[in-house]
Amino acid sequence: MKFHVLTLFPEIPQAFFDNSIMARAVKKGIIAYNLVNIRDFAFNKHKSCDDKPYGAVNDKHVPGMLMLPEPLALALESVGAGFKSPETASNRPRVVYVTPSGTPLTQRLAQELSHEEELVFICGRYEGIDQRIIDGWVDDEISIGDYVMSSGELAATVIIDTVYRLIDGVISSESLAEESFSDGLLEYPQYTRPEIFRDMSVPEMLLSGHHENIRRWRLRKRVEKTLRVRPDLIEQARISGSLSEEAEKIIKELQNGNGSDPNDRRKPEKG
């Protein structure tokens, strides 16, 4: 997959692409990226990319500044994302505008985006971008949450991170299989060495070596946490048919007051 990021500050997403799992995916050739500086398409010597919005009332200016449409349109066209039309629908990359007023980002949407060959991200600044760009070039408006940020670059990297890790070869399928939201449930708690840390012990079940019991324990913990933190996910999983019969049985046990698990914790040995 190739990511095109249209931005006024390319150094921000550059750091993301240069580090950790993303850097390894780029080195392997699984991921490619192109950072496009929108200022390169500005017309004046100051490389200005913003202006005051229309709509003054009683001689009072609309607050804030808006990104100019022409430099942004040229930047989009430079990566093959021309004006939307039935004729260009099959041969132009999917264009995403990151905005608080967009569709909420979900794991399901990330899965959908991960099947694209190319994605183009518009990183807004100031009060956003001219609506004509949205109408003529943007395919998806996506929000990462119900809050406002000053940087579209940060929000774009969040979306890219949720998408690229789902592409074959980036992360093992085993690691993805039991992650939060993979089947409508949150992830189970995990532990590492030492076995006893500041009088807190690793649950005895995880030390038992009994694979099936460990699997059931983890599922129970996933159900417990989802019911406690995100009960809405349980209903969504039921509607989509992704909630297993085993998980439903655990839910009933917990709701009937049989939720205690004697294998949760071991008392630390006193020496």
List keywords for this structure.
271 residues; alpha/beta; Alpha/beta knot; Trp Operon Repressor, Chain A; five-stranded parallel sheet; two-stranded antiparallel sheet; 10 helices; tRNA_MeTrfase_TRMD/TRM10; S-adenosyl-L-methionine; tRNA_m1G_MeTrfase_C_sf; tRNA_m1G_MeTrfase_TrmD; tRNA processing
Your description of this structure?
The protein is 36% helix and 15% strand. With 271 residues, it is α/β, with parallel strands linked by helices. The chain folds into 2 domains: 173 residues, SPOUT methyltransferase, trefoil knot domain (Alpha/beta knot), CATH 3.40.1280; 78 residues, tRNA(m1g37)methyltransferase, domain 2 (Trp Operon Repressor, Chain A, Orthogonal Bundle), CATH 1.10.1270.20. The strands form 3 sheets. Strands 2-1-6-5-7 form a 5-stranded parallel β-sheet, with helices on both faces. Helix 4 links the parallel strand 5 and strand 6. Helix 8 packs across helix 9 and helix 8 packs across helix 10. The radius of gyration is 24 Å and the shape is elongated. The model has no long low-confidence stretch (mean pLDDT 91).
